[in-house]
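Data follows
____________
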Amino acid sequence: MLADTWRYTGGDSCARFFSLSLQDVKPPVSDECRTLEIGCSEFDWLSVARQCWPRMALTGIDWRAEERHRYEDVVVRRADVRQADLFPPNRFDLIVSISAIEHVGLGHYGKPRDPVDPNGDITAIENSWEWLVPGGWLFFDVPWKPGEG
């Protein structure tokens, strides 16, 4: 099980939240599953995942992604998560997005690469749902501060 082998003890609070979520939910996917990380440029989740799960097929996408990664078998693409045909339906068993979905469509990373799209986050989740196999696990988190909604 994924929860038994994920060992992140660093300082990134979102990655720690992912760790806690794994322990609480115990997603029904194996450590050999096909995995997509959306927003892979900020925190190096893919490297931690590769260390924990050496047999997992890992793919990452991000506006700012470098097309190479320190692990040769990790596929990283500079891509727009709003583009539905980026991957075929039912491609991934696990999709992870750590503090990234809420940025889609805000245009913070410069036009034309990162256009403003008021529905960008919704499109990203809809596409993720299509790319996820039935019974797969979609993990995404967004910032939240107690007392602010």
About this structure: The helical segments are 2-5, 13-25, 45-52, 120-131. The longest strand covers residues 132-141.
